[in-house]
């Protein structure tokens, strides 16, 4: 008998309380997080324990993940770099530079809209949009 992991159930559980934003900002990931920390008062730091590793075409690709825990509640923010050496974490969203995931408790639409507006005002950010979980084909790539 061969046991297999049901990735769809794993992804469903991981994303049950999550909201996602896609960001176009053609800057390095560490610079983007520095700008967020400076302009929004966040404390994004790279978390190498949850770095995403994908094997494609006989190569390994590494996608850094930055983490910020909001003080006083259960919300955690994660920023994924969507590109590494010509490969994409979410190939269906090639135009995005970063994917911003918020999870830990239910995120109200008003909070998400206010956050998006604040991010839009940061120098270098060209576009920000909410990503619908149902439209992400490679959701499992975001699970750590």
Note down, in words, how this protein is organized:
It is built from 3 helices and 10 strands, in the order αβαββββββββαβ. By secondary structure, it is an alpha+beta fold. The protein has a single domain, classed as TATA-Binding Protein. It has a 6-stranded antiparallel beta sheet, covered by helices on one side. Strand 3 (52-56) and strand 4 form a beta hairpin. The longest helix is centred in the N-terminal third of the chain and has 12 residues, at 29-40.
CATH architecture: 2-Layer Sandwich
Major β-sheet, in short? 6 strands, antiparallel
- Terminus-to-terminus distance: 27 Å
Task: Figure out the total of helices.
Answer: 3
Radius of gyration: 15 Å
Strand proportion: 25-35%
Would you list the SSEs in sequence order as H and E?
HEHEEEEEEEEHE
| Helix proportion range | 10-25%
Uncertain residue segments: none
Shape: globular
CATH class reads Alpha Beta
**CATH T-level fold name:** TATA-Binding Protein
Total count of domains: 1
Structural class of the secondary structure composition?
Answer: alpha+beta
What number is the mean pLDDT? 93
Strand order of the largest sheet: 2-5-6-9-1-10
Question: What keywords describe this structure?
Answer:
single chain, 144 residues, alpha+beta, TATA-Binding Protein, 6-stranded antiparallel sheet, 3 helices, 22% helix, 31% strand
Question: TL;DR?
Answer:
The chain has 144 residues and is an alpha+beta fold. The chain has one domain: TATA-Binding Protein, CATH 3.30.310. Helix content is 22%, strand content 31%.
């Amino acid at each position: 008998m061969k046991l297999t992991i049901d990735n769809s159930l794993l992804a469903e559980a991981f994303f049950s309380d999550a909201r996602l934003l896609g960001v176009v900002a053609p800057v390095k990931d560490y610079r983007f997080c520095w700008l967020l920390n400076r302009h929004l008062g966040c404390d994004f730091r790279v978390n190498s324990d949850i770095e995403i590793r994908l094997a494609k075409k006989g190569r390994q690709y590494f996608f850094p993940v930055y983490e910020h825990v909001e003080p006083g509640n259960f919300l955690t923010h994660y920023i994924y770099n969507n590109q590494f050496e010509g490969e994409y974490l979410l190939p269906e969203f090639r135009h995005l530079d970063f994917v911003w995931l918020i999870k830990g408790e239910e995120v109200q639409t008003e909070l998400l809209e206010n956050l998006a507006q604040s991010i839009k005002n940061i120098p270098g950010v060209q576009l920000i949009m909410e990503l619908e979980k149902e439209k992400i084909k490679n959701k499992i790539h975001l699970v750590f």
